[in-house]
């Protein structure tokens, strides 16, 4: 099994740097580790290179793209029976108010903004949110009703450090579907249930020593279990 | 009866020739007993109400059109352009790597990673590909991010600009020709054949820049399918075959009697009086594909 990582991991994992892997043609099951899997960034090209070589790889290019587009993330998650909130993709403020209602969580759906969301509790806040996330109303946004409390959690191979059972179970399911080893999940908790709202890249600084340890542990586990990466 | 949604953005109606082509699609569909509605960005929640989606807005994994495509696909609709084709065609690195893997004849190409932009590598590239080279940002369309570089300084300048959005670029041997063949392909079959003439004194087909005043763009010369060189046909179908079974426009250069693929486009331009001028049946064939 091949580990390609842009993150400093402990030496006994023998991880390759992305640049080394991109210049090679190593055929092996590949785990692509980076905090940032954005489309067109090095992490994307690592998965692409692995796919072209015919390697099994996590994450796949398809999942990298889909997980970062909130409407597709939620559509695919709900098809896989992962609890999600309803959503509306639109650039129309009135439509959000009548069809989604307030308060509302708004995610960007454009090529430029790839992190964060805004919560709007009233109409003028919604206008402001649409103005910034829609880049002056030029792009559509993804609007979701806010029904409970919002949580943002780090997911490392589907594991979260949060002790909340529902959120842990949700994060495991999202990992099983999209196989994004490292990411941040946005989750709503309402009526004691957890609902998926969004997913975004982690900043490198957000990875703690404990996270790095967990990464090593998970990789060891995968290799002990016969390199089964679930693709 | 099939309900077809045609996903468009406002700019699809800014050129009368494109608008006429869109109306041709609509009339053809309606004559065949299908419904054909233009679907704009504000109504994409209506996708479940259709049987097929035909995307005419520019495609890219980062654009709304991808969300439309993938949503339709996940809901089991017929869709042109399908999400897989968008993913491959929108990225030159992806498609060139597939061409290499499957032996599709193409222009000599090397990939350059952001970390490799240094003197030794640039010298090596110039000695492999000669001078000038053509630098392409993977996401380019309408010739926008395709530029020449003949020395290290201009190479660095162009590469730095293109690296802002993509961490890998494609570098090619400069291969100028008087025209690009443009072969329309649908479901592994030839739809139409044209020559996109390169404007005099230029080396790029200056493209139809949608929504902008027309920049210089070369003439389109339409060719009868039966007059298509057999080898051209073979190369065009092979290139599309490694991508998918959808609708494509393949750009091919003829160099010393060899045919080399420049790129495969999903979402190929269709303008009334241009791509359709020898093959009026392209509208019907695309509608049939969508309503089958
Ligand atoms: N290696 C090359 N040498 C010479 N001309 C090229 C080369 N690659 C592309 N071109 C020309 O540049 C234009 C745009 O290239 P292309 O790869 O199709 O990018 P785009 O996706 O932006 O259309 C076309 O007219 C093509 O003929
Ligand atoms: Mg082109």
What does this structure look like?
The complex is a heterodimer of chains A (231) and B (292). Chain A is α+β, with helices and mostly antiparallel strands and 231 residues long. Chain A has 3 domains: 2-65 and 206-223, Rossmann fold (3-Layer(aba) Sandwich); 67-84 and 148-204, D-amino Acid Aminotransferase, Chain A, domain 1 (2-Layer Sandwich), CATH 3.30.470.20; 88-143. Chain A is 36% helix and 23% strand. Chain A is built from 8 helices and 10 strands. Chain A is globular and about 55 Å long. Chain B is of the alpha+beta class. Chain B folds into 3 domains: 3-81, Rossmann fold (3-Layer(aba) Sandwich), CATH 3.40.50; 108-173, ATP-grasp fold, A domain (Dna Ligase, domain 1); 176-280, 2-Layer Sandwich (D-amino Acid Aminotransferase, Chain A, domain 1), CATH 3.30.470. Chain B has 8 helices and 13 strands. The longest helix of chain B has 16 residues, at 16-31. Adenosine-5'-diphosphate (ADP) binds next to strand 6, strand 8 and strand 13 of chain B.
Core attributes:
heterodimer; A: D-amino Acid Aminotransferase, Chain A, domain 1; 3 domains; three-stranded parallel β-sheet; 36% helix; B: 292 residues; alpha+beta; Rossmann fold; Dna Ligase, domain 1; D-amino Acid Aminotransferase, Chain A, domain 1; five-stranded antiparallel β-sheet; four-stranded parallel β-sheet; binds adenosine-5'-diphosphate; binds magnesium ion
